[in-house]
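Following up on my earlier thread - several people asked me to post the actual chain instead of describing it. Fair enough. Here it is, all 413 residues.
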Amino acid sequence: MDFFTVVTIIIVLAALFGYVNVRFLRLPSTIGLMVVSLLFSLFGVLISAFSPHLLAFETELIQSIDFQKVLMEGMLSFLLFAGALHVDFGQLKKQRGPIILFSTLGVITSAFLIGGFMYLILPLLGLPTPFIYCLLFGSLISPTDPIAVLGILKKAGVPKQLETKIVGESLFNDGIGVVVFVTIFQLARAGLGEFHISEVAILFAEEVGGGVLLGLGLGYFAYYLMRTIDHYEVEVLITLAMVMGGYLLASQLHFSGPLAMVVAGLMVGNERFRVSAMSEETEKYVDSFWEIIDVLLNMVLFVLIGLEVIILEFNPAFLIAGLVAIPVVLLARYLSLTPAIKLFQRRLEFIPRTNLIMTWGGLRGGISIALALSLSSQMPRDLILTITYAVVIFSIIVQGLTVEGLVRRVVRE
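Reply from S.P.:
Thanks for posting it. Predicted structure:
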């Protein structure tokens, strides 16, 4: 299929699945779209014995899409910028201490805990896996997905200070998580003996530090341009060019593009930036434009997640490993959040059971799947991909549908 045909089919399916959800299921948009997409995929598999055309069509469609490339090199920059654009900068600044710890030490701790647990558990299921690949799975599943988190927490009624922690952590740990994954991926591919700790430290510092500095530079450059004119069409175009050009520049410089987009989005969304660089009309159009981009790409992303299930290898042992991984990932997240919460809970007045809400509200999504799809054929790709899908589907559907009830129960207490 050619590019235009594929894009057209995905948009049409997103519109149809969105209609089915709004008309009949009435679930939150991201959850509903993924549920309908999964049902569509499973329906195709079930009727393939009688009518193979639907399954053949769906398989051809999925095989023509490089999900990892589409998300990581295309959609992610827009989604992260749009998400960061509407984060409460004042609350984020106030909560910066725990957010930094959650998104750095928390992600690394979680990756090692998950890797260690899975290394011990998988042999019991007849799936012995080298520790470096267990650690690779831990690194790709540890970051919470800001796209899934933002889409679901908006309707969950989470108290503002806790919402800032969860959203702020997910925005930053996404960028940190990708850097951790890339580092471990290179270790796995090159071999531990061929990689020195100094190289790991330099790679990490370059990706993270470079991404943050680039984001600051992009935000300031956009501020300078938008402050010197008052023309909303051009100013909207400046923000679009900043996202597309900035992400491309980050990839060329080997900086973290996700972190650059988060920092740039926070700068443009900052109240001081808006007051001094945007008129009310410009602000309205910038917000409207990025809200539409956010909604459209979210719909497409969750349709793709649902459809991609067709490529999984249905190995019973892999599926059992995926089910076992769900509580392992939740336990590792709970344990990795605890030190930062204990450190800051008195100073910042954390609400009761913050750890429980952040554990259950830390959803995994398309980024974990995209990273799993990027694994090479020499690695246990099918095993890791199946386990990742199990965790992501449980996270979005089960945790996503119940986090609102959990928040209400905790707040009421």
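The CA atoms of residues 311 and 367 lie 17 Å apart. That should answer part of your original question.
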